[in-house]
């Protein structure tokens, strides 16, 4: 068991409430398209596509829209060739950032990431400068309609490494390769699964006890997250519950 900074929950709630559906769909469709291009259009033999397909469905992307994205990825339909690029940087206070993007123009995206960081108290970092502070993990979010003990009982037998209380749902953490099988086991047990994916979890965190500083970090993360090329922003900021509640 482990604690969890509530800043992630605040960001999740805000994203669910405020994100323009069209912009969210566009990001998810890009992910499906790139997964199909890199590993083929069959989710049964392409685990990355299977994960992205499920992620899109979890966010209510229409099935025919997902299927068209798969066809663009496999070349059956004309599409844009997106390149996955991860940028590393710092937010105010030395908070580490990993910024995952899908871009059709590396120079434009890199320039815009650098500008967003520098104009908002951050800076770009050299490759490898901050990535060592993160490790890739899978996660499954489960509704709190079931108890912590029940989730752990099923989770432990199916690759779960940790269980975190993220206020409105349980987050079950596992190795990325166990994500799909863990989700299937939890669903088979009758639990309501909200979403599953892989993420970059920090191995150490930067405490942020000043409200103004914490707000500056979250504003930068949101500005990056709103960029059309950005798929995910990971950070190692740790904001106390009381400050997080005020910012929420």
Word description of this protein:
The protein has helices at 7-18, 21-39, 47-58, 63-74, 106-119, 148-156, 179-188, 211-226, 241-247; strands spanning 83-91, 95-103, 123-125, 134-143, 160-165, 169-174, 193-202, 206-207, 230-235, 237-238. By secondary structure, the protein is α+β, with helices and mostly antiparallel strands. It has three domains: 7-74, Orthogonal Bundle (Arc Repressor Mutant, subunit A), CATH 1.10.10; 83-132 and 205-239, YebC, transcriptional regulation domain (Alpha-Beta Plaits, 2-Layer Sandwich), CATH 3.30.70.980; 133-202, 2-Layer Sandwich (Alpha-Beta Plaits). The model is unreliable at 1-10 (pLDDT under 50).
Query: Helical element count?
Result: 9
- The CATH homologous superfamily of the largest domain corresponds to YebC, transcriptional regulation domain
Q: Approximately how much helix is present in the residues?
A: 40-55%
- Based on secondary structure, the structural category is alpha+beta
Number-wise, the strands total: 10
Query: How many domain modules?
Result: 3
Spatial order of the strands forming the largest sheet: 3-1-2-9
């Amino acid at each position: 068991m482990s604690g969890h900074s509530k800043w992630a929950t605040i960001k999740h709630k805000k994203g669910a409430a405020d994100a323009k559906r069209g912009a969210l769909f566009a990001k998810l469709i890009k992910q499906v398209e790139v997964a199909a291009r890199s590993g083929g259009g069959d989710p049964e033999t392409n685990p990355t596509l299977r994960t992205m397909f499920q992620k899109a469905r979890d966010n209510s992307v229409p099935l025919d829209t997902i299927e068209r994205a798969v066809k663009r990825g496999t070349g059956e339909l004309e599409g844009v060739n997106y390149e996955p690029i991860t940028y590393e940087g710092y937010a105010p206070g030395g908070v580490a950032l990993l910024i995952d993007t899908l871009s059709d123009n590396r120079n434009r995206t890199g320039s815009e990431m650098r500008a967003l960081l520098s104009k908002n108290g951050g800076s770009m970092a050299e490759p490898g400068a901050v990535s060592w502070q993160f490790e890739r993990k899978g996660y499954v979010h489960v509704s709190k309609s079931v108890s912590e003990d029940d989730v752990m009982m099923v989770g432990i037998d199916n690759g779960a490494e940790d269980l975190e209380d993220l206020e409105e749902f349980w987050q079950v953490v596992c190795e990325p390769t166990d994500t799909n099988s863990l989700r299937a086991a939890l669903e088979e047990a009758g639990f309501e699964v909200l979403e599953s994916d892989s993420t970059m979890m920090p191995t150490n965190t930067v405490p942020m006890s000043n409200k103004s500083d914490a707000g500056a970090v979250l504003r930068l993360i949101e500005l990056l997250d709103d960029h059309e090329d950005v798929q995910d922003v990971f950070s190692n900021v740790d904001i106390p519950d009381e400050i997080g509640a005020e910012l929420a």
